[in-house]
Amino acid sequence: MILLLGGTSxxxxxxxxxxxxxxxxxxxxxxxxxxxxxxxxxxxxRSGPLDEIALVELIEHRGxxxxxxxxxxxxxxxxxxxxxxxxxxxxxxxxxxxxxVVAPGTRGxxxxxxxxxxxxxxxxxxxxxxxxxxxxxxxxxxxHARRSGVPLVVRVLDHPxxxxxCQQAGIPPERTIFAxxxxxxxxxxxxxxxxxxxxxxxxxSGAAGGTREKLLAAQAEGCAVIVVxxxxxxxxxxxxxxASLLIRLGNAGxxxx
Length: 257
Fold this sequence. Notes:
The protein is an alpha/beta fold. It has helices spanning 11-20, 52-62, 76-89, 115-123, 139-148, 160-169, 185-195, 211-220, 242-251; strands at residues 2-5, 25-29, 43-47, 66-69, 93-96, 109-112, 129-131, 152-156, 176-178, 199-203, 224-228, 238-239. The chain is built from nine helices and twelve strands.
């Protein structure tokens, strides 16, 4: 059985194509947000976070023969844990990586290394800020909004954990958009217009994450764009398409069942 660490929009497609090739797949995601994994007798699913101990137990209990890591490009903690556990258990580890979309030097875009720097850069422009990076790093943005008096609007997943994070950060409901992306260019533009946004903060989550649509909407509306750069990682275990993934599994001796 292959353990597919999911949580991104590619996960159902990857699982389905692996199953069609005869692999048994266990899709694991940290949250209980439905991914719409295709029904197939070779596909199972579980949810809940995995630390190193839990991952080892899962591998032993389910007879995992390989790990395919299709988690978010910015999910550095699980990348490190999965790679380390796979090496210790002597099973193949392959990362399925979304290629980046935003090129260096793109008009109106500033790349920054982390969220505190992004918050400082965004609010220094003294224009309303739309934050689209999720609910896990709200604190520096909320703090800059309070200190500067510049409005902060947050767009997050409609999930109890996201609502709680916004409440704890002191972000009022009227400045919160609860919705599940990816969003079209027009919906992004509508959100920008609804709140008079002048600065959009985002990650480069790849084409499947709606990055291009955010960028084009911001450019069309005259917004500055702050991009939190991707964490530096090794590409030695990375693929970005199903064909390469199947080749990598085959070369590692992981055959279908």
